[in-house]
Each structure stands twice: as structure tokens, then as C-alpha cells.
Design a protein that fits this description.
This protein has 430 residues and is of the alpha/beta class. The chain folds into 2 domains: 224 residues, Rossmann fold (3-Layer(aba) Sandwich), CATH 3.40.50.300; 177 residues, Nucleotidyltransferase, domain 5, CATH 3.30.420. The chain is built from 14 helices and 15 strands. The longest helix has 17 residues. 44% of the residues are buried.
């Protein structure tokens, strides 16, 4: 009884200061879809909605009531994101619960258990089949646009959402012009809510707006990341979203060659550009004839703020993980030092040096043409890289170099435009 009273007080306090877009909409919907900018309060809205369903379930003996939930799916980009953001984050499920109703997370089983018996299981979009065998009466899908396998994960979630009289779900994300997102918006069973970063300004650091947000205001990326708008294409960009979506697949065939391409930053430290690290392979369909060669983007291991030793370790780890043939590295900024850093990590790793003698756009144009010809495939989604591709016009965005894109260009140039002879036989399917 005390727990119930505390939950009611918690809910009343939330309703008193919540934004309108964070409150459950009326109507007979299946999916409540919140598209919002960074920091708009999407995570808090998702957590509060789940909290209310669980609390209502405690007051109803009938677990099939449409306003309650006992079995819940929590789906994030990775298992770590599910725990660190949706469950234990500052706006997550543990934080929004009343003291006597706070759930307990069981890491070994990746599940969250409430005192009233409701249970939520965490899932990763990197493992779509992990949802098989489960069934739920409610779900929360967070950051769909960052999911590695969005179509497969979403489909498996819908098949598992089958308990109770009216199973429902909330999806929270900063948008991208993905086919899945557009279908959800158009669905008759979806209720759409939009929110911008500015609407939640009172709860965010002013430095975010004066320093970070200001750099993106008035740009296509700013409309997407701050205003929560779906921006289909950037005028003058080499890649369109349709080109990128058309390249997406879930599985790849045996590959004849694999490379790891590295675009090192000129400096290191927290303010340095990202180090672009891309893994890609090639399949010689039809006997290895050049015009039948297809490239497959396998992984994006890029990261900001890496020291030379750190990015070299990251590149070598990818080289061994994917059993690559060589590491392709741009040496304009470091010359022989770049190769020496890799040799310190693994002296046996074969390294090919490449030099940028032309501008970025000139180097990228032949690669964009390969996409138009349908000769490049993305094995899953690579949100950060694809954002750079779809916004790249030849000028740096917000003063930052598109290092992920540079590494992709080097990888595909080596595989598709300047290919070496493949090893005998083909590689196993990962």
C-alpha cells in the first residue's frame, strides 16, 4: 500500500513538470513514436511510460489490462546501452522509480525485476535473434536509428509483442531518413510525437547550446540532431539516403580479400579529429572479373581522442578479428612514423601506405559512383559513418574532418579501384 502511494506521488510529480510531448498520447495506438533532438527528454519519456505501466499492473489483478505491463522488452543499440541508458542511466528505469518500487537489475540474466513481479529483459540490436522465444505485453525501443540490424530487430520485436489484450510499445530516437522510420510514421497504428533540443533547454547545460548546438544551427545535421527533423538529402552531397539504404544487407558471402583502412588524425587528445578505421572486403562474383566485383563494408571501428598507440592497437585488433590481408593507412600526416606505430603493436602486420595527392571530394567521387552502380554493400547500419556520407558535399562539416568517410574511401579504393590479386580460395563467412 505504501509503495503504491509513493508511486502515485512520483507520477503526480512527473506529470506536473513533464513536457507535453513526454506524456502518453490519447487514442488507440500500438506504437508511440517519439522523434526528438539530442537531449530533448526522449529517454525520460520512455522510462516514465514503462514505470507507469508497471505501477498500474500492481493495482490490477488482470495482467491483460491494456494499461498495465508484466513482461517488457527493452531494446537498445547494444546490451551495454540497454543497461547504461535505459536501466541504470540518470533518466533510466531505476532512477525514475519510487524508492519502495525500485527494480533490481540482474546482470547475469540481463533482466530487470520489480517488487510487484513485473520483469523487463534487455536486448541488443546487434543480436536480432536474441528476441526469439520471448513474449511481451509492452516494449521500449531506444535509438532505432543507431541499430545495426534495424529491420530484423524490429520484426522480431513485433513477433514477440503478443501478450495481453492490447500490447503496446514506445520507440524513442533521434531521426534519420531510414525506410523503417518512414514506415512507422506512416502506419495507422502509430502516434507520432516530435520534440527539439530547445524545448528541453531548461534541463540542459547552457554550454551545450552556446558551444555545441551553435555550430550546427542552420545546417541539415542541426535540423536532424537538434530539431528532430527527418532530413532526406543534402543538396550537393555525393551520397543520398536512398543510395545508402539500397546498399544495406544483413549477411555477406565468402570474401576473397579483406582490408582495414586507417585515416589517422593529425593530433591526439580530446579535441582531436576522429581516427577513421574501416573494415571492408570484396567478393569476386563471376570469376573475379572487375565489373562483377562487389565490396562489403563490415565494420566501423573509428573513435575520437585516440593516441597513436591506441588507434594502432584498434586497427591491429580489427586486422586479426577479420583475418584481413593488410592494413591500408594514409601517411600524409605522419609519414614513416605512422607505419612505425603499427609495427610497434604488431611487426608482422602487413601495411600499405597511401598518399592523398588529390582533394577529398575527388577521391570520394569514384567511390560514390560504385554505390550508384550497386557495387557496395553495408552489412548492417553504420550511423556515424552514414551521416558523414549523406552530408558530405566537399566542405568540412562544423570544422570537423570526415575521417570515417576518408577511411571508407581508402578501403574501397584499395579493394575496387586498385585491387591486388586475391589469395587462393575464399574466406569463410563470418
Amino acid at each position: 500500500m505504501i509503495a503504491r502511494v509513493l508511486e502515485q506521488q512520483k507520477h503526480k510529480a512527473w506529470m506536473a513538470h513533464a513536457h507535453k510531448y513526454q506524456i502518453e498520447p490519447a487514442g488507440d495506438w500500438t506504437t508511440w513514436f517519439i522523434l526528438g533532438g539530442r537531449g530533448a527528454g526522449k529517454t525520460r519519456a520512455g522510462a516514465e511510460w514503462i514505470r507507469a505501466l508497471v505501477a498500474d499492473g500492481a493495482a490490477n489483478d488482470d495482467s491483460g489490462d491494456r494499461n498495465s505491463a508484466r513482461a517488457i522488452a527493452l531494446v537498445a543499440e547494444t546490451y551495454a546501452d540497454a543497461r547504461e541508458v535505459m536501466i541504470e542511466g540518470p533518466s533510466g528505469l531505476c532512477a525514475v522509480a519510487a524508492d519502495l518500487s525500485r527494480p533490481t537489475y540482474e546482470p547475469s540474466r540481463r533482466r530487470l525485476v520489480w517488487p510487484n513481479g513485473a520483469v523487463a529483459y534487455a536486448f541488443s540490436a546487434e543480436d536480432p535473434d536474441g528476441l526469439r522465444g520471448y513474449q511481451f505485453d509492452a516494449a521500449w525501443a531506444d535509438e532505432l536509428c543507431k541499430w545495426r540490424y534495424p529491420e530484423e530487430t524490429w520484426s522480431n520485436l513485433q513477433l514477440a509483442l503478443r501478450l495481453g489484450k492490447r500490447p503496446r510499445q514506445i520507440a524513442t530516437t533521434t531521426p534519420r531518413p531510414m525506410a523503417l522510420i518512414k514506415r512507422l510514421i506512416a502506419a495507422a497504428t502509430t502516434t507520432l510525437t516530435r520534440a527539439s533540443s530547445y524545448a528541453n533547454r531548461a534541463n540542459l547545460s547552457e554550454a551545450f547550446f552556446t558551444e555545441i548546438a551553435a555550430a550546427y544551427e542552420g545546417t541539415a545535421l542541426g535540423r536532424q540532431e537538434l530539431l528532430g527533423e527527418i532530413v532526406d538529402d543534402v543538396i550537393g552531397a555525393l551520397w543520398s539516403w536512398n543510395m545508402i539504404e539500397a546498399a544495406r544487407i544483413s549477411y555477406y558471402p565468402p570474401l576473397s580479400r579483406i582490408v582495414v583502412a586507417v585515416d589517422p588524425p593529425a593530433t591526439s587528445g580530446p579535441d582531436a579529429d576522429e581516427c577513421g578505421i574501416i573494415v571492408a572486403g570484396v567478393a569476386d562474383i563471376g570469376g573475379g572479373v572487375n565489373d562483377q566485383r562487389v565490396a562489403y563494408l563490415l565494420a566501423d571501428r573509428s573513435a575520437p581522442g585516440l593516441s597513436p598507440r591506441q588507434w594502432a592497437e584498434r586497427a591491429v585488433a580489427a586486422f586479426h578479428e577479420y583475418e584481413a590481408d593488410r592494413i591500408v593507412v594514409e601517411v600524409n600526416q605522419g609519414g614513416e612514423m605512422v607505419k612505425a606505430v603499427i609495427a610497434q603493436v604488431d611487426a608482422a602486420a602487413p601495411v600499405k601506405s597511401v598518399y592523398a595527392t588529390r582533394g577529398k571530394r575527388l577521391r570520394a567521387e569514384p567511390i560514390a559512383a560504385l554505390y550508384e552502380q550497386g557495387r557496395v554493400r553495408h552489412v548492417g547500419a553504420f550511423p556515424a559513418l552514414e551521416e558523414q556520407m549523406a552530408s558530405y558535399t566537399g566542405a568540412s562539416s562544423a570544422g570537423k574532418s570526415p575521417d570515417r568517410l576518408d577511411a571508407l574511401v581508402w578501403a574501397l579504393t584499395d579493394l575496387m579501384l586498385n585491387p591486388a590479386a586475391p589469395r587462393p580460395g575464399v574466406r569463410r563467412l563470418n
